[in-house]
Write a structure and sequence with these properties.
Blueprint lengths: L8 H18 L3 H6 L2 H17 L18 H11 L5 H4 L6 H11 L2 H13 L4 E4 L16 E5 L2 E12 L6 E7 L11 E7 L5 E9 L2 E16 L3 E2 L5 H37 L1 E2 L2 E2 L4 H29 L5 H26 L1 H4 L5 H8 L9 H19 L12
Parallel strand pairs: 1-4
Antiparallel strand pairs: 2-3, 3-7, 4-5, 5-8, 6-7, 9-10
Length: about 400
């Protein structure tokens, strides 16, 4: 077994180009993007996207035939981690959630005509999309509880229900909507079906954009009232909604981790920079053991995060089962991200609590990472189940710890 995470000179050159684009083109417009409103913000973003497209940094996660860069997952980890050094990087390169996960889903599950109609414009950057699964009334952690229901009326499906926290819904041209269609499935996981919904649409009613701890950020609450869809709008087969969601979440969770690593690294860079310049009790903070422990713990966690993400990406690239590695990476990186930003705020003192640095904003954003796309405890439950199964099957837990040669 050999694992080689070194890149070819071409990929190193790509890394430099993405790095330079983020520093020289995106970062100088961040303040303008933060302060701009409505269409002005969109115009700036579109202008940045055009420049990125021209520079050949576009859709790093998609195959060439869809206008993408045809990268493997290890290579993608490098591009995503470079891109996410700016909050807007993934948006500019058209590899942001939830569009990025929806593109994978459409590529795998859509019919040819659905691909031309929905995937093509999404890849071209002409549309946005959303993914509508979570409901306020039931635990999002258990999709077998979904209550939004569809029944068949001739060639149409009639859908009623309630969704919330649907990111991007207010600007999306279409949604992938998860609906309960089967009354009595053989397996509880086979009750749901996915549909494509053109937006806006009769019966798709936005109640509000939910105010969150980091402001009102485009996560919508939606009431579905006699929404009628032609049967050709079904994505995948009847009862395959859960499978489709799981398929979508694997690479999408890992892509989140790739972007979180960039944020964690930024927080650690800031922690060290501040500790080198702040003076107290006879020396700079960097010379205090208490501060060094925070730096060391963060460094070790970031190192572990990178290895876990690269290894999970390597397994995806090799076509090996990656569920467990992605689960462990998602849990570990999400928690490391929160801890590292928290330590960086601690080292910055009052400045870290202010909005004069990006840390406060990063902290507010990071909190959702521990429960969205699989809460910590759900991942822990699955990891434990796999570890126990490995022991029962092989008399050893080794297979559950990455299948590594030691
Ligand atoms: C910023 C943001 C964006 C989002 N975007 C989208 C989106 O675009 N589309 C979409 O469909 N959803 C979206 N969501 C929703 C997200 O996917 C859900 O929050 C997530 O699936 C958890 O579901 P829930 O909130 O209903 O929590 P619940 O399922 O109610 O869980 C609450 C807590 O209970 C605990 N818990 C639950 N089950 C178990 C268990 N079996 N064992 C132990 N503990 C358990 C966990 O601690 C968990 O955090 C978004 C959420 C946020 C915050």
């Amino acid at each position: 077994m050999s694992i080689d995470f070194s890149f070819t000179p071409e990929l190193e050159e790509l890394r430099d180009r993405v790095h330079a684009f983020v520093d020289e083109v995106i970062r100088p417009t961040e303040v303008e993007l933060e302060e701009a409103e409505g269409s002005q913000r969109l115009d700036t973003l579109i202008s940045l996207r055009k420049q990125a497209h021209k520079a050949g940094i576009w859709l790093p996660h998609m195959p060439e035939e869809w206008g993408g860069m045809d990268l493997g997952h290890v290579e993608l980890a490098m591009v995503q981690a470079e891109a996410a050094r700016s909050y807007y990087g993934p948006w500019v390169f058209n590899c942001q959630a939830p569009d990025e996960g929806n593109m994978h889903t459409l590529l795998h599950w859509a019919t040819d005509s659905q691909k031309e109609r929905y995937l093509r414009p999404l890849c071209d950057g002409r549309t946005w999309s959303c993914f509508a699964m979570t409901e306020p009334e039931v635990a999002g952690s258990d999709p077998t509880l979904i209550r939004t229901t569809g029944y068949q009326d001739g060639e149409e499906w009639v859908i009623n229900g309630h969704k919330w926290f649907i990111s991007n819904a207010h600007r999306a041209s279409f949604a992938i909507l998860i609906v309960r269609t089967e009354d009595d499935p053989d397996l509880p996981q086979a009750a749901n079906t996915a549909f494509l919904v053109d937006l806006p649409h009769d019966g798709w009613n936005e109640v509000r954009q939910i105010e969150t701890m980091h402001g009102s950020t485009g996560h919508s609450e939606i009431l579905l009232e006699d929404l009628r869809l032609h049967e050709s709008q079904m994505l995948g087969g009847r009862g395959q909604g859960h499978l489709l969601g799981q398929y979508r979440l694997g690479p999408a969770r890992l892509a989140h981790c790739m972007r979180w690593i960039a944020q964690a690294e930024m927080a650690l860079d800031m922690m060290v920079a501040r500790s080198l310049e702040r003076f107290s009790h006879g020396s700079v903070l960097a010379e205090k053991q208490g501060i060094q422990w925070m730096i060391a713990d963060s460094t070790m966690e970031l190192y572990q995060s990178k290895l876990m993400v690269l290894h999970a990406a390597y397994k995806i690239d090799r076509g090996e089962d990656f569920k467990s590695e992605v689960s462990m990476a998602k849990h570990f990186v999400a928690n490391s991200l929160n801890r590292i930003i928290d330590r960086s705020i601690q080292v910055h003192g009052a400045l870290g609590y202010s909005t004069d640095t990006p840390l406060a904003h990063m902290y507010q954003h990071a909190r959702w990472a521990r429960f969205a796309d699989g809460a910590d405890e759900i991942h822990q439950m699955r990891i434990a189940q796999r570890t126990i199964a490995a022991y029962k099957d092989h008399g050893s837990t080794a297979a559950a710890t990455g299948g590594l040669p030691i």
